[in-house]
Records
---
Amino acid sequence: MLQKFDERNRNLIININGQLVHRDKAGISPFDSAVQGGDAVWEGLRLYNGRIFKLHEHLDRLERSACALSFAEIPPPEKIIEEIKRTLAANKMSDGVHIRLTLTRGLKITSGMDPRLNQNGPTLIVLAEHKAPVYAKSGLTLTTSKVRRPPRDVLDARIHHANLLNSILAKIEANNAGADDALMLDTRGFVAETNATHVFIVRNGDLATSRVVACPEGITRATVLELCAAEKIRCLETNLSVVDVYGANEMFCTGTMGELAAVTRLDNRQIGDGKVGPMTKRLSDLYAKRTATEGVQIV
């Protein structure tokens, strides 16, 4: 699965610390913390008919992550929302848009890892693109990566940080294997998530998803849990092994950029009957109903 260039994005306007610039002229300093050490946090948002779904939940996670990294200054939600509005207006966007927020620790007075070198406040980047959900609805193929997700005592995955090399290495494995994405395990051998999304399996009409130990607290994942509670669908958060996944009737992954997408093969093994299953379809439809009617009006 390789995303393709959307011609509508050729003349995007990017927002960097409130400055609106053409994508070809946008840039950040080599002294910015994101360049120096991946010292940044981020969020992915999706715009549906002028509304951003789960906006406040995303901004809350952004703030929690920045606090965990001891950012000296964090823009208030009102400021971030205003910059999102300005960016969308500059690009005349109202629907079918993915927004990536990046908040870095900001500029350093000289090269180095020490956060005390950051004395100018954070850098906020708002990148809005015309982008449909990125995963095919016909079913994805995964391969289990040899790259493991670190435990909390190494790097807590609940920090939604921008140092994504762990996931990128797993994605390289998936590319080399001809798979869409990689399933990543923790150091104990339990399922964490894919290199980009959370995963659910269906067994005998019940759902199960991995515990939030070596993966972030996904907002689309949380929405699926909400849907299950509302629909009285039993869903268990537990330790899952690859064997559990091999024996599942259905499997799907969740994320803001791709919404809900079925997984039909793992490690060249067919999951269930190899088709998009009824539970995946049901929850996808329920999710679509929520995104069509809920969210913060921003355009």
---
Amino acid sequence: MKIGCHVSIAGGLEKAVARAKKLGLNTMQIFSKNSLTWQERYYTKREIIVFQKALQKTEIYPVFIHASYLINLASPDEKIYQKSIKAFLEEIKRAEKLLSLVPSYLIVHPGTHRGSGEEYGLLRISEALMTILEQISSLKLSTMILLENTSGSGSSLGYTFSQLAYIIRKIGCPENIGICLDTCHAFTAGYNLTDEKGIEGTLAELRREINWNKLKVIHLNDSKYPLNSRKDRHMHIGEGFIGLEGFSILVNHQAIKDLPFILETPRRSEEDDQRNINIIKRLRK
């Protein structure tokens, strides 16, 4: 079973590897910079080598990088839109350097339309990704972009599988575009993940809308709010509205059980991460 969580890079990238190893993880997710600022982070050659050597000494694979929360590829504000495209390209370049020895994955929230409407916002995201993909091709970069489904809170887009499918089709179904499925987001967007019938229906819809091979990772998060509430607030496994039965079915489901599972549950200390990881391991049959 590939089980991991989001790990802090405080003190250096290699510290994230050490934290993941201490938690007994065999996959992980990190930010490659401060996710709440536009300021870029450039790593020295030595920092990159130290990180890569630390990874080579472990069985932590794959490593996922989550893009900054400020990036909005649907923004109707042209200044923010262009700034987001530029920042996302920097995220890709950084991921390429940090994970040059292994396949690299960069997870991003599609964007928020900020009142401009869903149709316009989805088109905006598609056009931004086409621009980004052209740059990736010209620079011969191989990082895979993973679009993460959202809860649909506010004006966020990508909360239905059909919206994600629209974006992928619009940009020509490129091989380096995939999907990250977040359980909390899916649940509060209206996908019932509490029992077998709901989970089978959810996965069947995902399979109908999107090439199954594009699903690369699952964010395992319980939800503080109920089904179809359109609120994005993660909870500890089994302490939210999805519940232990739902997660037991998910982590043992034949169609997804071999995918990497990444927890983004609330964290006040490493003990919180360890407790949630242990719960998932116990649920795995």
---
Amino acid sequence: MTKKERYAAIIAYFEQAMPVAETELHFDSDFQLLVAVMLSAQCTDKRVNLVTPALFEAFPTPAAMAAATEEELLEYVKSVSYPNSKARHLLEAARQLQERFGGEVPSTLEELTSLPGVGRKTANVVMSVAFGKARMAVDTHVFRVSHRLGLVPAKAKTPLAVELELVRNFPEDVIPRAHHWLILHGRYVCKALKPDCMGCGLQRVCVFFNKKS
């Protein structure tokens, strides 16, 4: 199977099996999306969704959050991973959004990654979800699933290498959905420790499955 055929088969499968694919984080604005994604680093979306309703009620905008203290924010996010650094980054990012961007979330990689606590993965999620850009955020699920399915070569050993390979081979209009396809497939089917290979509809094209069988 050629690379082009593999990508085509995987796209066809997900378009039928998962026609609607979107983030599981809850938010009502670009700012709330940014905050939720920042909190989700090394933390589950489920946990973040338990934390954000009260956080967003208290601090719904960059202006409201910028006026808070680090200690106040910590009370709301203390149950997520690395709460101290995340509270600090949220406060600093909110202040910079106010001071540098007029309270609006910017839409470019350079601007987003200039904010405290915002790395390439977070920026890619915001650009894809909030602005519909063809960006591929690579988390542990995307990294694992891409390798197992054979979408990327074994030599793609970094998130950036995987991102560039996926962006090169997925059609541009598919990339925003493909990001969620791979995340959700990794979260619920192609799990790290116990992949549900027998319940997976991608056995025919999966390098990992065919090596095992």
